[in-house]
Specification:
By secondary structure, this protein is mainly alpha-helical. It has 18 helices and 3 strands. InterPro entries: DUF3526 (IPR021913).
Protein backbone atom coordinates (compact mmCIF):
# COMPACT_ATOMS: atom_id res chain seq x y z
CA UNK A 1 0.00 0.00 0.00
CA UNK A 2 2.91 2.35 0.74
CA UNK A 3 4.19 1.84 -2.80
CA UNK A 4 0.75 2.60 -4.16
CA UNK A 5 0.56 6.00 -2.44
CA UNK A 6 4.13 6.82 -3.46
CA UNK A 7 3.07 6.28 -7.06
CA UNK A 8 -0.05 8.43 -6.49
CA UNK A 9 2.13 11.27 -5.17
CA UNK A 10 4.42 10.88 -8.17
CA UNK A 11 1.44 11.15 -10.49
CA UNK A 12 0.31 14.29 -8.65
CA UNK A 13 3.70 15.91 -9.18
CA UNK A 14 3.63 14.87 -12.82
CA UNK A 15 0.18 16.43 -13.20
CA UNK A 16 1.29 19.72 -11.61
CA UNK A 17 4.28 19.85 -13.95
CA UNK A 18 2.04 19.40 -17.01
CA UNK A 19 0.93 23.01 -17.42
CA UNK A 20 -1.41 22.13 -20.27
CA UNK A 21 -3.38 19.67 -18.15
CA UNK A 22 -3.54 22.11 -15.24
CA UNK A 23 -4.80 24.80 -17.59
CA UNK A 24 -7.38 22.42 -19.08
CA UNK A 25 -8.63 21.41 -15.64
CA UNK A 26 -8.89 25.05 -14.62
CA UNK A 27 -10.78 25.81 -17.81
CA UNK A 28 -13.29 23.03 -17.11
CA UNK A 29 -13.70 24.45 -13.60
CA UNK A 30 -14.48 27.90 -15.04
CA UNK A 31 -16.85 26.44 -17.61
CA UNK A 32 -18.61 24.51 -14.85
CA UNK A 33 -18.95 27.68 -12.76
CA UNK A 34 -20.40 29.45 -15.78
CA UNK A 35 -22.86 26.59 -16.24
CA UNK A 36 -23.96 27.05 -12.63
CA UNK A 37 -24.23 30.81 -13.13
CA UNK A 38 -26.23 30.42 -16.34
CA UNK A 39 -28.61 27.85 -14.86
CA UNK A 40 -29.31 29.86 -11.70
CA UNK A 41 -29.67 33.09 -13.68
CA UNK A 42 -32.10 31.51 -16.13
CA UNK A 43 -34.27 30.04 -13.38
CA UNK A 44 -34.17 33.32 -11.47
CA UNK A 45 -35.27 35.13 -14.63
CA UNK A 46 -38.17 32.69 -14.98
CA UNK A 47 -39.12 33.16 -11.32
CA UNK A 48 -39.10 36.93 -11.70
CA UNK A 49 -41.24 36.63 -14.82
CA UNK A 50 -43.71 34.40 -13.02
CA UNK A 51 -43.79 36.85 -10.10
CA UNK A 52 -44.99 39.62 -12.43
CA UNK A 53 -47.94 37.62 -13.77
CA UNK A 54 -50.29 38.30 -10.80
CA UNK A 55 -49.59 42.01 -11.26
CA UNK A 56 -50.44 41.76 -14.96
CA UNK A 57 -53.66 39.92 -14.12
CA UNK A 58 -54.51 42.59 -11.52
CA UNK A 59 -53.94 45.37 -14.06
CA UNK A 60 -56.19 43.52 -16.49
CA UNK A 61 -58.93 43.39 -13.85
CA UNK A 62 -58.56 47.11 -13.11
CA UNK A 63 -58.85 47.92 -16.82
CA UNK A 64 -62.00 45.80 -17.07
CA UNK A 65 -63.49 47.57 -14.07
CA UNK A 66 -62.99 50.86 -15.88
CA UNK A 67 -64.29 49.44 -19.15
CA UNK A 68 -67.36 47.98 -17.41
CA UNK A 69 -68.00 50.26 -14.40
CA UNK A 70 -71.30 48.58 -13.51
CA UNK A 71 -72.69 45.03 -13.67
CA UNK A 72 -71.53 43.49 -16.95
CA UNK A 73 -72.26 40.56 -19.20
CA UNK A 74 -70.01 37.68 -18.12
CA UNK A 75 -69.35 36.94 -21.78
CA UNK A 76 -67.57 40.27 -22.18
CA UNK A 77 -65.49 39.59 -19.07
CA UNK A 78 -64.57 36.09 -20.19
CA UNK A 79 -63.49 37.39 -23.59
CA UNK A 80 -61.27 40.21 -22.34
CA UNK A 81 -60.10 38.89 -18.99
CA UNK A 82 -56.67 37.23 -18.99
CA UNK A 83 -55.41 34.85 -16.34
CA UNK A 84 -52.37 32.58 -16.12
CA UNK A 85 -51.51 28.95 -15.48
CA UNK A 86 -48.01 29.02 -14.01
CA UNK A 87 -45.33 26.35 -13.65
CA UNK A 88 -42.98 27.09 -10.76
CA UNK A 89 -39.55 25.38 -10.80
CA UNK A 90 -37.95 23.43 -7.99
CA UNK A 91 -34.70 24.59 -6.43
CA UNK A 92 -32.99 21.82 -8.42
CA UNK A 93 -34.09 23.23 -11.77
CA UNK A 94 -31.04 25.52 -12.11
CA UNK A 95 -28.72 22.49 -12.05
CA UNK A 96 -30.49 20.79 -14.96
CA UNK A 97 -32.81 23.04 -17.01
CA UNK A 98 -34.19 20.13 -19.02
CA UNK A 99 -37.50 20.92 -20.75
CA UNK A 100 -37.84 24.38 -19.18
CA UNK A 101 -35.70 25.91 -21.95
CA UNK A 102 -37.87 24.55 -24.80
CA UNK A 103 -41.40 24.43 -23.37
CA UNK A 104 -43.42 27.34 -21.93
CA UNK A 105 -43.39 27.64 -18.16
CA UNK A 106 -46.68 29.57 -18.09
CA UNK A 107 -49.83 29.68 -20.23
CA UNK A 108 -51.96 32.79 -20.75
CA UNK A 109 -55.61 31.75 -20.65
CA UNK A 110 -58.97 33.26 -21.52
CA UNK A 111 -62.38 31.61 -21.67
CA UNK A 112 -61.83 30.81 -25.35
CA UNK A 113 -60.85 27.41 -26.79
CA UNK A 114 -58.07 25.85 -24.77
CA UNK A 115 -55.86 24.07 -27.31
CA UNK A 116 -54.90 27.15 -29.29
CA UNK A 117 -53.79 28.77 -26.03
CA UNK A 118 -52.12 25.71 -24.55
CA UNK A 119 -49.67 25.26 -27.43
CA UNK A 120 -48.96 28.96 -27.95
CA UNK A 121 -45.53 30.10 -26.74
CA UNK A 122 -43.26 33.11 -26.95
CA UNK A 123 -41.16 33.62 -30.05
CA UNK A 124 -37.56 32.56 -29.43
CA UNK A 125 -34.38 32.43 -31.44
CA UNK A 126 -34.47 29.01 -33.19
CA UNK A 127 -30.67 28.86 -33.22
CA UNK A 128 -30.65 29.16 -29.43
CA UNK A 129 -33.27 26.44 -29.10
CA UNK A 130 -31.23 24.18 -31.38
CA UNK A 131 -28.03 24.64 -29.40
CA UNK A 132 -29.79 24.42 -26.05
CA UNK A 133 -29.05 26.17 -22.81
CA UNK A 134 -25.94 25.77 -20.70
CA UNK A 135 -26.16 24.30 -17.21
CA UNK A 136 -24.19 22.13 -14.82
CA UNK A 137 -25.80 18.92 -16.11
CA UNK A 138 -24.55 19.76 -19.63
CA UNK A 139 -21.00 20.28 -18.34
CA UNK A 140 -21.03 17.01 -16.40
CA UNK A 141 -22.58 14.88 -19.14
CA UNK A 142 -20.85 16.27 -22.24
CA UNK A 143 -17.62 17.98 -21.17
CA UNK A 144 -16.36 15.91 -18.24
CA UNK A 145 -15.80 12.82 -20.45
CA UNK A 146 -13.51 14.98 -22.61
CA UNK A 147 -11.58 16.04 -19.51
CA UNK A 148 -11.22 12.39 -18.49
CA UNK A 149 -9.97 11.54 -21.99
CA UNK A 150 -7.45 14.40 -21.95
CA UNK A 151 -6.10 13.31 -18.56
CA UNK A 152 -5.99 9.59 -19.28
CA UNK A 153 -5.47 8.84 -22.98
CA UNK A 154 -1.72 8.33 -22.41
CA UNK A 155 -2.09 6.63 -19.07
CA UNK A 156 0.70 4.09 -19.81
CA UNK A 157 1.55 4.73 -23.45
CA UNK A 158 3.52 7.95 -22.86
CA UNK A 159 5.86 6.31 -20.34
CA UNK A 160 6.20 3.27 -22.58
CA UNK A 161 7.12 5.50 -25.53
CA UNK A 162 9.69 7.36 -23.40
CA UNK A 163 11.20 4.15 -22.03
CA UNK A 164 10.26 5.03 -18.44
CA UNK A 165 7.85 2.12 -17.97
CA UNK A 166 10.68 -0.44 -18.32
CA UNK A 167 12.59 1.20 -15.47
CA UNK A 168 9.47 1.51 -13.35
CA UNK A 169 8.52 -2.16 -13.70
CA UNK A 170 12.11 -3.17 -12.95
CA UNK A 171 11.37 -2.07 -9.39
CA UNK A 172 9.56 -4.39 -6.94
CA UNK A 173 6.08 -3.19 -7.98
CA UNK A 174 3.28 -5.06 -9.70
CA UNK A 175 1.92 -3.70 -13.02
CA UNK A 176 -1.58 -3.63 -11.56
CA UNK A 177 -0.45 -1.30 -8.79
CA UNK A 178 1.02 1.08 -11.37
CA UNK A 179 -2.21 1.20 -13.36
CA UNK A 180 -4.31 1.56 -10.19
CA UNK A 181 -2.21 4.46 -8.93
CA UNK A 182 -2.43 6.32 -12.22
CA UNK A 183 -6.19 5.82 -12.44
CA UNK A 184 -6.68 6.74 -8.77
CA UNK A 185 -4.99 10.12 -9.11
CA UNK A 186 -7.03 11.00 -12.19
CA UNK A 187 -10.20 9.69 -10.61
CA UNK A 188 -9.64 11.81 -7.50
CA UNK A 189 -9.02 14.90 -9.63
CA UNK A 190 -12.13 14.47 -11.75
CA UNK A 191 -14.45 13.44 -8.92
CA UNK A 192 -13.08 16.22 -6.73
CA UNK A 193 -13.82 18.75 -9.46
CA UNK A 194 -17.30 17.31 -10.16
CA UNK A 195 -18.23 17.24 -6.47
CA UNK A 196 -16.84 20.74 -5.94
CA UNK A 197 -19.00 22.09 -8.76
CA UNK A 198 -22.01 20.19 -7.44
CA UNK A 199 -21.46 21.62 -3.94
CA UNK A 200 -21.18 25.15 -5.34
CA UNK A 201 -24.36 24.63 -7.38
CA UNK A 202 -26.27 23.24 -4.40
CA UNK A 203 -25.20 26.18 -2.22
CA UNK A 204 -25.80 28.79 -4.94
CA UNK A 205 -29.29 27.49 -5.77
CA UNK A 206 -30.14 26.98 -2.07
CA UNK A 207 -31.05 23.37 -2.72
CA UNK A 208 -32.48 21.62 0.37
CA UNK A 209 -30.07 19.05 1.76
CA UNK A 210 -32.17 15.91 1.56
CA UNK A 211 -31.87 12.48 -0.03
CA UNK A 212 -31.89 13.95 -3.53
CA UNK A 213 -28.39 15.31 -2.95
CA UNK A 214 -27.18 11.76 -2.45
CA UNK A 215 -28.89 10.64 -5.67
CA UNK A 216 -27.26 13.52 -7.59
CA UNK A 217 -23.81 12.69 -6.19
CA UNK A 218 -24.28 9.00 -6.96
CA UNK A 219 -25.29 9.76 -10.56
CA UNK A 220 -22.29 12.06 -11.07
CA UNK A 221 -19.82 9.62 -9.52
CA UNK A 222 -21.11 6.62 -11.47
CA UNK A 223 -21.08 8.55 -14.76
CA UNK A 224 -17.44 9.53 -14.21
CA UNK A 225 -16.60 5.96 -13.21
CA UNK A 226 -18.15 4.75 -16.45
CA UNK A 227 -15.79 6.89 -18.51
CA UNK A 228 -12.80 5.78 -16.48
CA UNK A 229 -13.92 2.23 -17.24
CA UNK A 230 -13.82 3.10 -20.95
CA UNK A 231 -10.28 4.44 -20.40
CA UNK A 232 -9.34 1.18 -18.69
CA UNK A 233 -10.55 -0.81 -21.72
CA UNK A 234 -8.55 1.29 -24.19
CA UNK A 235 -5.49 1.25 -21.93
CA UNK A 236 -5.66 -2.54 -21.70
CA UNK A 237 -5.22 -2.73 -25.48
CA UNK A 238 -1.66 -1.40 -24.92
CA UNK A 239 -1.47 0.70 -28.05
CA UNK A 240 0.33 4.00 -28.61
CA UNK A 241 -0.94 7.41 -27.41
CA UNK A 242 -2.27 8.45 -30.83
CA UNK A 243 -4.39 5.30 -31.09
CA UNK A 244 -5.68 5.76 -27.53
CA UNK A 245 -6.65 9.38 -28.18
CA UNK A 246 -8.49 8.54 -31.38
CA UNK A 247 -10.22 5.55 -29.79
CA UNK A 248 -11.39 7.51 -26.74
CA UNK A 249 -12.58 10.51 -28.73
CA UNK A 250 -14.35 8.07 -31.05
CA UNK A 251 -16.01 6.47 -28.04
CA UNK A 252 -17.12 9.93 -26.87
CA UNK A 253 -18.57 10.73 -30.29
CA UNK A 254 -20.41 7.40 -30.44
CA UNK A 255 -21.76 7.40 -26.88
CA UNK A 256 -22.48 11.11 -26.46
CA UNK A 257 -23.31 12.31 -29.98
CA UNK A 258 -24.06 9.48 -32.42
CA UNK A 259 -26.07 7.07 -30.26
CA UNK A 260 -28.32 9.79 -28.76
CA UNK A 261 -28.98 11.06 -32.29
CA UNK A 262 -29.79 7.58 -33.58
CA UNK A 263 -31.91 6.95 -30.52
CA UNK A 264 -33.89 10.13 -31.21
CA UNK A 265 -34.44 9.12 -34.85
CA UNK A 266 -35.55 5.63 -33.81
CA UNK A 267 -37.97 6.96 -31.19
CA UNK A 268 -39.44 9.46 -33.67
CA UNK A 269 -39.94 6.71 -36.25
CA UNK A 270 -41.44 4.12 -33.91
CA UNK A 271 -43.57 6.49 -31.81
CA UNK A 272 -44.94 9.15 -34.20
CA UNK A 273 -47.15 11.77 -32.56
CA UNK A 274 -49.36 14.52 -34.03
CA UNK A 275 -47.89 17.99 -33.78
CA UNK A 276 -49.31 20.69 -31.50
CA UNK A 277 -49.67 22.90 -34.57
CA UNK A 278 -51.93 20.29 -36.17
CA UNK A 279 -54.16 20.33 -33.10
CA UNK A 280 -54.37 24.12 -33.18
CA UNK A 281 -55.23 24.26 -36.89
CA UNK A 282 -57.96 21.65 -36.64
CA UNK A 283 -59.40 23.32 -33.55
CA UNK A 284 -59.46 26.71 -35.27
CA UNK A 285 -61.15 25.23 -38.34
CA UNK A 286 -63.85 23.75 -36.11
CA UNK A 287 -64.30 27.03 -34.25
CA UNK A 288 -64.47 29.13 -37.41
CA UNK A 289 -66.96 26.68 -38.85
CA UNK A 290 -69.16 27.21 -35.79
CA UNK A 291 -70.19 30.65 -37.07
CA UNK A 292 -71.90 29.08 -40.09
CA UNK A 293 -73.72 26.25 -38.32
CA UNK A 294 -77.28 26.59 -37.00
CA UNK A 295 -77.32 27.68 -33.37
CA UNK A 296 -79.69 24.87 -32.46
CA UNK A 297 -77.23 22.28 -33.82
CA UNK A 298 -74.36 23.81 -31.87
CA UNK A 299 -76.30 24.05 -28.62
CA UNK A 300 -77.68 20.51 -28.89
CA UNK A 301 -74.12 19.18 -29.25
CA UNK A 302 -73.08 21.27 -26.26
CA UNK A 303 -76.07 20.18 -24.14
CA UNK A 304 -75.17 16.55 -24.87
CA UNK A 305 -71.96 17.24 -22.95
CA UNK A 306 -73.52 19.52 -20.30
CA UNK A 307 -77.18 18.51 -19.88
CA UNK A 308 -77.49 20.67 -16.74
CA UNK A 309 -77.78 23.76 -18.98
CA UNK A 310 -80.38 22.30 -21.37
CA UNK A 311 -83.27 24.12 -19.68
CA UNK A 312 -81.85 27.57 -20.52
CA UNK A 313 -83.68 29.88 -22.88
CA UNK A 314 -83.66 29.18 -26.60
CA UNK A 315 -81.29 31.44 -28.49
CA UNK A 316 -83.16 33.75 -30.86
CA UNK A 317 -80.66 36.60 -31.06
CA UNK A 318 -78.11 36.87 -33.86
CA UNK A 319 -75.27 36.72 -31.34
CA UNK A 320 -75.18 35.63 -27.73
CA UNK A 321 -72.14 34.84 -25.63
CA UNK A 322 -73.22 31.42 -24.38
CA UNK A 323 -73.52 30.21 -27.97
CA UNK A 324 -70.09 31.67 -28.77
CA UNK A 325 -68.39 29.90 -25.85
CA UNK A 326 -70.30 26.72 -26.63
CA UNK A 327 -68.76 26.35 -30.08
CA UNK A 328 -65.39 27.43 -28.69
CA UNK A 329 -65.55 24.45 -26.35
CA UNK A 330 -66.82 22.17 -29.12
CA UNK A 331 -63.67 23.11 -31.04
CA UNK A 332 -61.66 21.67 -28.15
CA UNK A 333 -63.84 18.58 -28.06
CA UNK A 334 -63.29 17.98 -31.78
CA UNK A 335 -59.55 17.53 -31.24
CA UNK A 336 -59.80 15.57 -28.00
CA UNK A 337 -58.70 12.30 -29.70
CA UNK A 338 -55.71 14.11 -31.21
CA UNK A 339 -54.82 15.60 -27.83
CA UNK A 340 -54.99 12.17 -26.19
CA UNK A 341 -52.88 10.66 -28.98
CA UNK A 342 -50.35 13.50 -28.70
CA UNK A 343 -50.00 13.20 -24.92
CA UNK A 344 -49.92 9.39 -24.92
CA UNK A 345 -47.40 9.44 -27.77
CA UNK A 346 -45.06 11.73 -25.83
CA UNK A 347 -45.34 9.52 -22.76
CA UNK A 348 -44.63 6.43 -24.86
CA UNK A 349 -41.62 8.17 -26.39
CA UNK A 350 -40.26 9.01 -22.97
CA UNK A 351 -40.85 5.46 -21.73
CA UNK A 352 -39.06 4.09 -24.79
CA UNK A 353 -36.11 6.43 -24.23
CA UNK A 354 -35.95 5.22 -20.63
CA UNK A 355 -35.89 1.58 -21.76
CA UNK A 356 -33.23 2.21 -24.41
CA UNK A 357 -31.06 4.41 -22.17
CA UNK A 358 -28.90 1.34 -21.54
CA UNK A 359 -27.20 1.90 -24.90
CA UNK A 360 -26.11 5.46 -24.07
CA UNK A 361 -25.01 6.33 -20.53
CA UNK A 362 -25.01 10.00 -21.61
CA UNK A 363 -28.74 9.87 -22.37
CA UNK A 364 -29.32 7.90 -19.18
CA UNK A 365 -27.44 10.46 -17.07
CA UNK A 366 -29.13 13.44 -18.72
CA UNK A 367 -32.64 11.98 -18.33
CA UNK A 368 -31.92 11.05 -14.70
CA UNK A 369 -30.54 14.47 -13.75
CA UNK A 370 -33.50 16.24 -15.42
CA UNK A 371 -35.93 13.94 -13.60
CA UNK A 372 -34.21 14.73 -10.30
CA UNK A 373 -34.51 18.45 -11.06
CA UNK A 374 -38.19 18.16 -12.01
CA UNK A 375 -37.53 19.48 -15.52
CA UNK A 376 -38.21 16.36 -17.57
CA UNK A 377 -40.99 15.67 -20.08
CA UNK A 378 -43.45 13.94 -17.68
CA UNK A 379 -43.33 17.01 -15.43
CA UNK A 380 -44.16 19.29 -18.36
CA UNK A 381 -47.05 17.04 -19.38
CA UNK A 382 -48.31 17.13 -15.79
CA UNK A 383 -48.25 20.94 -15.98
CA UNK A 384 -50.27 20.87 -19.20
CA UNK A 385 -52.83 18.60 -17.56
CA UNK A 386 -52.97 20.99 -14.62
CA UNK A 387 -53.54 23.94 -17.00
CA UNK A 388 -56.36 21.96 -18.69
CA UNK A 389 -58.04 21.35 -15.34
CA UNK A 390 -57.70 25.05 -14.56
CA UNK A 391 -59.39 25.99 -17.82
CA UNK A 392 -62.19 23.57 -16.95
CA UNK A 393 -62.52 25.33 -13.58
CA UNK A 394 -62.74 28.70 -15.34
CA UNK A 395 -65.54 27.43 -17.59
CA UNK A 396 -67.37 25.98 -14.60
CA UNK A 397 -67.07 29.38 -12.88
CA UNK A 398 -68.40 31.40 -15.83
CA UNK A 399 -71.12 29.07 -17.13
CA UNK A 400 -73.70 29.94 -14.40
CA UNK A 401 -73.32 33.62 -15.27
CA UNK A 402 -73.66 32.91 -18.99
CA UNK A 403 -76.51 30.42 -19.02
CA UNK A 404 -78.50 31.89 -16.10
CA UNK A 405 -77.94 35.44 -17.38
CA UNK A 406 -76.45 36.58 -14.08
CA UNK A 407 -74.71 39.95 -14.18
CA UNK A 408 -70.99 39.93 -13.42
CA UNK A 409 -70.05 42.49 -10.73
CA UNK A 410 -66.73 43.83 -9.54
CA UNK A 411 -66.88 41.61 -6.45
CA UNK A 412 -67.00 38.51 -8.67
CA UNK A 413 -63.43 38.96 -9.88
CA UNK A 414 -62.15 37.85 -6.47
CA UNK A 415 -64.18 34.64 -6.72
CA UNK A 416 -62.49 33.53 -9.95
CA UNK A 417 -60.28 30.42 -9.51
CA UNK A 418 -56.51 30.79 -9.70
CA UNK A 419 -53.78 28.35 -10.66
CA UNK A 420 -50.35 27.29 -9.51
CA UNK A 421 -48.21 24.25 -10.27
CA UNK A 422 -44.80 23.44 -8.84
CA UNK A 423 -42.47 20.80 -10.21
CA UNK A 424 -41.53 17.79 -8.14
CA UNK A 425 -38.53 15.54 -8.48
CA UNK A 426 -39.19 12.30 -10.37
CA UNK A 427 -37.22 10.12 -7.97
CA UNK A 428 -38.42 6.90 -9.59
CA UNK A 429 -36.89 7.86 -12.94
CA UNK A 430 -33.68 9.11 -11.29
CA UNK A 431 -33.30 5.95 -9.21
CA UNK A 432 -33.93 3.75 -12.25
CA UNK A 433 -31.24 5.66 -14.14
CA UNK A 434 -28.90 5.20 -11.20
CA UNK A 435 -29.21 1.42 -11.36
CA UNK A 436 -28.70 1.44 -15.12
CA UNK A 437 -25.53 3.49 -14.71
CA UNK A 438 -24.33 1.08 -12.03
CA UNK A 439 -24.75 -1.83 -14.45
CA UNK A 440 -22.95 0.10 -17.22
CA UNK A 441 -20.07 0.83 -14.85
CA UNK A 442 -19.85 -2.82 -13.88
CA UNK A 443 -19.75 -3.91 -17.53
CA UNK A 444 -16.97 -1.54 -18.64
CA UNK A 445 -14.82 -2.11 -15.57
CA UNK A 446 -15.22 -5.87 -15.76
CA UNK A 447 -14.21 -5.72 -19.42
CA UNK A 448 -11.21 -3.51 -18.69
CA UNK A 449 -9.96 -5.65 -15.81
CA UNK A 450 -10.43 -8.83 -17.84
CA UNK A 451 -8.39 -7.37 -20.70
CA UNK A 452 -5.65 -6.33 -18.29
CA UNK A 453 -5.49 -9.89 -16.96
CA UNK A 454 -5.47 -11.69 -20.30
CA UNK A 455 -3.00 -9.20 -21.84
CA UNK A 456 -0.02 -8.94 -19.46
CA UNK A 457 1.52 -5.49 -19.39
CA UNK A 458 4.30 -5.23 -21.95
CA UNK A 459 6.72 -2.41 -21.05
CA UNK A 460 8.17 -2.24 -24.59
Amino acid sequence: MRTFWILVRYEWRHFRAAKGLVLLTGLVLLVGLYGIYYGTTEIERQRQHLATLPTLAHHNVEELKKKFPGPADAGDIGYYHTTFAVHHPTEWASLALGQRDVNPYYVKLRLLGLQGQLYASENVNPTKVLSGNFDLAFVLVYLFPLLIIALSFNLLSSEKEQGILVLLLAQPVRPGVVVAAKLTLRLLLVLGLALLLSAVAVAWARVPLDGRVGVWVALVVLYCLFWFGVVAIVTALQRNSAFNAVALVGAWLVLVVLLPGLLNVYVDATRPVPQGLELTIKQREEIHGGWDKPKSETMNRFFALYPQWRDTATIRERFVWRWYYAFQHLGDESVRPLVAAYTDGLRQRFALVERLAWVSPAVNAQVSLAALAGTDLPTHLAFQQSATRYHDALRAFYYPYLFRKVAFTHDDYAKEPTHTFTSTSELGTATSGLWKLLVSVGVVWATGLLLLQVRPLNPR
